[in-house]
Amino acid sequence: MMNYTRWSTFALMGALTLACFTQACATKETSDVKNDVKKQAYGKMPDGAQVDLYTLTNANGMQAGIITYGGTVVSLSAPDRNGKYADVVLGMDDLAGYMKATAFFGALIGRYGNRIGHAQFTLDGSTYKLPANDNGNTLHGGPAGFDKHVWSAVPGSNSPDGPTLQLTYVSKDGEAGFPGTLSTTVFYTLTAKNELKIDYTATTDKPTVVNLTNHSYFNLAGQGEGDVLGHEVMINADRYTPVDANLIPTGELRPVAGTPFDFTKPTAIGARIEANDEQIKFGKGYDHNWVLNKGAAFITKAAEVHEPKRGRVMEVWTTEPALQFYTGNFLDGTLKGKGKTYLHRGALCMETQHYPDSPNKLAFPTTELKPGATYRSTTLYRFSAK
To answer: What pTM does this model have?
Structure first.
């Protein structure tokens, strides 16, 4: 069983890789670029609370933009094989867009990423009812999860790993139906290796469940630049968790071999996404949890994505036991953001996590967090080109 106290220490440094705010940035001259964090006002909440935008720049000229509303990655730049930078994450035009959006673009997700079946769970003999926002289930913490709150921020540009942004949020006992006051800290770090590194910690004063992640939508051709069906994906997983018609895991760990879910070798997303397969039909494409092949290492490689036309590569490394791979199946061309129209399957998500509905599946790795223990999780998205 996986336990959040297995790792007693790790560097609480977080990172982000902001995309230039234009849709495609020119090749950067990096000889005089230094680690930097800049702050500017982004907007105000209805109650008057200030929302800020922090722009992190590493010594290579890579940038990441993060707002304090939802700890959201609003832009992330990455170079192609010719050194040309482009914003590779989908997002909205302004704060009002993020407040109205239901797609969770770039947001920190909590208290529980992914789905909890029937919008309830039992812990230590008590049943906790949650708000249902997805076919009678709770998705990503409900309609007012961590993505809909303003986080406190502390920037830093002097870390040896790269510029950082520390975000904190305290979720009170009973918020969205979850027990315990949960104090969460997230570090974003934009490293010298062109990694967006995200470190999560959380503590509680009552037994509760926790499953934190980031919900960035990636298109390595550039945000809004068509669909991602030509992106080649490798997922380091021999099994996945099949789901019912409402996308709740059945409890089975099913081998990927011989199915459209076998990404153990690089495969184009579009190669089998329309397969005559019940699971594909349930998800309207890929929207499933892969059980990662985990070794003894603290952090292991979960996946790799390659966009062949421009050459951008994204590796995903994590301490988490699983990965939700989602192919933008519910994007339909009606949503617009950052000057672009977001087409069907116009992005992919790779959400590192524990398994969906774990609080109701005792055979799954536990997501329980007890007082005195600390939840710890690290994920990094590493960018390169070939």
So the answer is: 0.91
